[in-house]
Amino acid sequence: MSFDFSIRKNAWIFAFIFVAIILIFSIAYLQLSPQPSEKGEEKVIDDRISPMENQALFVQILRIRNRSLMERMLTHGNSWKEIPSFYYIIKVDDEIGSSKGYVGETGVYTTWDTMGYESTMTFDVEEEREYSDVRISIIEIQKTGLFGQKTKEVKKENISLKYDYRTGRWKGDDFFMDKDGMGHYLGKNYEIWFNIYQADYDHDNIPYWVEKNVLGTDPSIDDSKLDPDKDGIPTDWEWRYGYDPFTYNAHENLDPDIDGIENIEEYKMRKYFSNPFQPDIYIETDGMEKKGIIDLPHIFYKESQQMIIERFAQHGINVYIDDGWKDGPINGGGELLPHQKNLDDVMGKQLLAFYTHNFADERKGIFRYVVVGSREDGGGFITPVSYNNFDAIYVSNDFNSVITRLAFTPREIRVMLAKAILHELGHSIGLMPVTFPGIDIMSRKVVDRY
Q1: Domain end (from 198, 220, 254)
Q2: CATH number, domain with residue 78
Q3: In this structure, is residue 101 part of a structural domain?
Q4: Which structural domain range is residue 157 located in?
Q5: Are residues 187 and 297 in the same domain?
Q6: Which pLDDT tens digit goes with each residue over 10-32?
Q7: Domain assignment of residue 158, yes or no
Q8: How do residues 135-144 score in pLDDT, each as one tens digit?
């Protein structure tokens, strides 16, 4: 009996010692651990708007495109030759700026498309202002009177926005992640690309408030040159399109708009209006030298381009055509290639020479390559000149195509060229006769038309 009592007594002693040790270590841990501040763990918000820079707002008009040309081209008559004249007005709060007298050769734009002629206006803003009302208006100058000797000004588009100086975003008729992309407005009469940003000390277009309170970055350091998550795309682009710049994203594989242009390529094309959430089609086009004096121009007419751009725009797809962009790469669009009598897509694939030497290498995999030339049957084709990439298109514009397409007037020639190129572009996005029987006209009789 005394032996059992001794065992139980020792067990109780050991248990007491063990508990005491646990208590001592627990108290020591609590004493040595960092203590929360008296104010708690809440993050302190720096709610200043622009402490490092005098506050100002910049409104850039990047491109304006009149949308009426396609309808005019599909209507008999010469209205397609009447090039529109227009200018824009920007109002920020109570301050108004007009481009009239300061753009184009005559003080206004006289063109269907201002691609490559960007402009900007700067507006002073009172310090620490939180919001600004922004209005962009397109004013068209229309001829009136019996002989068109008089003119009147008609407001054709009006974009109303509210800019937030904390976030650098805006709401209203255009907003972040809307159906046609932030900074892109598809109006009834005009399509406008624009950008709005505020004075920013480090010039990365990320507002001070966002850097301090959202990203935790340094508002004195340009984040357009930093890539903290090492995914190949810097902080400013990822922030602009809603990605976390501190979380790795496989941008070389991401294609949220399913347009075949991965995010890493969208970033490369940022100068040319690319948007990772809006389908884009990029085209580089070259023409071909005439065979002689009596020959049609082998070029992708501006009117034909606008028809294709408009047709895709009606379906939410943005088309950009380089026919000689001023800042394009070596071997960019707009070249006149040596005349070839009859390129074909079966025997020899002679288009490979132009694809290799006249189509910029850095664009392959992003752009389609369209050559307008000559062909005995007056037709055209799309062909994979490299591996199985259907990105090279050849379409004729010559007297043979005039007969094949029954297009005899300047308007009809341009319309039928647009239809021929649109047909081949359809193949480039997967509309193949194997899966869509009947989309190709197989015979080449005079009565056949695209």
Answers
A1: 198
A2: 2.60.40
A3: yes
A4: 56-198
A5: no
A6: 655 665 666 566 666 566 555 55
A7: yes
A8: 999 999 999 9
Q: What is the pLDDT of residues 71-100, one digit of tens each?
A: 999 999 999 999 999 999 999 999 999 999
- Does any domain span residue 313? yes
3-state SS string over the chain?
CHHHHHHHHHHHHHHHHHHHHHHHHHHHHHHHCCCCCCCCCCCCCCCCCCCCCCCEEEEEEEEEEECCHHHHHCCCCCHHHCCCEEEEEEEECCEEEECCCCECCCECEECCECCCCCEEEEEECCCCCCEEEEEEEEEEEEEECCCCCEEEEEEEEEEEEEEECCCCCEEECCCCCCCCCCCEEECCCEEEEEEEEECCCCCCCCCHHHHHHHHCCCCCCCHHHCCCCCCCCCHHHHHHCCCCCCCCCCCCCCCCCCCCCCHHHHHHCHHHCCCCCCCEEEEEEEEECCCCCCCCCECCCHHHHHHHHHHHHCCCCEEEEECCCCCCCCCCCCCEECCCCCCCCCCCCCHHHHHHHCCCHHHECCEEEEEEECCCCCCEEEECCCCCCCCEEEEECCHHHHHHHCCCCHHHHHHHHHHHHHHHHHHHCCCCCCCCCCCCCCCCCCCCCC
Rounded to the nearest 10 degrees, the angle between the axes of helix 302-313 and helix 410-428 is 50
pLDDT, residue 282, reads 98
pLDDT value at residue 104: 83
Which whole number is the average pLDDT over 273-279?
Answer: 97
The average confidence (pLDDT) of the chain is 90
